[in-house]
Amino acid sequence: MGTNLPSWNDTAARQAVLDFVAKVCDSSNPGYVPPQERIAVFDNDGTLWCEKPMYIQLDFILQRWVEMVDENPALKRLYIRCGYAPMIELLHFLEANGFTNYIASGGGRDFMRPVTAEIYGIPPDRVIGSSVSLEFRASDKKGGDVLTKPQLNVLDDGPVKPPRIWSRIGRRPIFCAGNSNGDIQMLQYTEGSTHPSLCMLVNHDDDAREFDYTAGAEDALKMAQERGWIAVSMQQDWSTVFAAEEQ
To answer: What pLDDT, on a 0 to 100 scale, did the predictor assign at position 142?
Structure first.
């Protein structure tokens, strides 16, 4: 069943993930889900990688990607090394067990697409995010290009996430991970599956290894208690937050 989440502590959260995956992958279990229905969706900012300090996307707008070779002075690591090691392990674990992973984020779709394969193993065609309007412009000589327009097309957040997931995937997820109030509707959409489902919230409660904050997640954390969603404590459930830096 693939690697069993080595950067996760042996807690109830880790066990819940292992039990869920074992159930949906066991063809003799009443909760079995065929591989084509094993859809997992993940928010990005604050769920798969850091959202604080709020440097990453803003800095990208101000600098060319190839110039981003210096370490972030606040995080002391490269931007592309800001992914959470336990969540990246989770992505690989699900994929090894027949899941298809998607990103459904309020972040910029075209910002995320160039790096998601390298960081998470998720190809660009599985990235759903906010976007500006586009238009096709033919060349005077041959061919043409798709160009951006100076106006927002869609902000992929809150109640917009489920319709965008359905329009892009055509299936309801059975696994969902988020971290904020903007992920509530995506989590609700997932828990409504006719198949067994698992909903997860990443709780930023580790001020030593990351940051400690609940602002913007108060409603989601309250609903997690009420509805049985798994609230993953960075402090309690993860043995490490970031992968070790390459020397």
So the answer is: 85
Range of the domain at 38: 12-125+154-237
Task: Give the residues across from 101 on adjacent strands.
Answer: 40
Asked if residues 132 and 153 have their Cβ atoms less than 8 Å apart, the reply is yes
Residues linked to residue 100 through DSSP beta bridges, in sequence order: 39
Read off the CATH number of the domain in which 158 is found. 3.40.50.1000
CA distances to 71, 107, 110, 120, 127 from 19, rounded to whole Å, are: 39, 31, 35, 23, 27
The whole-number pLDDT of residue 11 equals 97
Asked if the bond preceding 159 is cis, omega within 30° of 0, the reply is no
Asked if residue 79 belongs to a domain, the reply is yes
Is 227 domain-assigned? Answer: yes
Q: Are strands 198-203 and 175-178 parallel, antiparallel or unpaired?
A: parallel
Q: Identity (one letter) of the amino acid at 150?
A: P
How many domains in the chain?
1
Say if residues 79 and 56 touch (Cβ distance below 8 Å): yes
| Lowest mean per-residue pLDDT among 45-54, 65-74, 190-199 | 65-74
Burial of 206 (0-12, 13-18, 19+ CB in 10 A): middle
| Per-residue pLDDT reduced to its tens digit, 150-198 | 888 998 999 999 999 999 999 999 999 999 999 999 999 999 999 999 9
Q: Is residue 6 part of a domain?
A: no
pLDDT category of residue 76 using cuts at 50, 70 and 90: low
Beta strands 198-203; 230-233: pairing state: parallel
Q: Has residue 193 been placed in a domain?
A: yes
What's the CA gap between 183 and 170, in Å, rounded?
19
